[in-house]
Write a structure and sequence with these properties.
Length: 67
């Protein structure tokens, strides 16, 4: 992990006094979890869902043709 140091300037006003300070902050990049490869079961389930959608569409067309 590459940490970056960033400096922020802060100005504090109290009554008549003005104070300026620098704050150093270490930033760490957010790591995203690796994309999980789909296993065979997930692929089969997706295919079944696609086929069932196609069947529903076909049933609707068949009903229209029957009328």
């Amino acid at each position: 992990m590459a940490e970056k140091e960033k400096e922020w300037k802060v100005t504090v006003v109290k009554g008549r006094g003005v104070t300026s300070k620098g704050i150093k902050v270490k930033q760490q990049p957010i790591e995203k979890p690796p994309i999980k490869p789909k296993d065979k079961l997930d692929l089969v389930l997706e295919e079944i869902q696609d086929v069932s959608k196609d069947l529903k569409r076909c049933e609707g067309k068949i009903d229209k043709l029957k009328k």
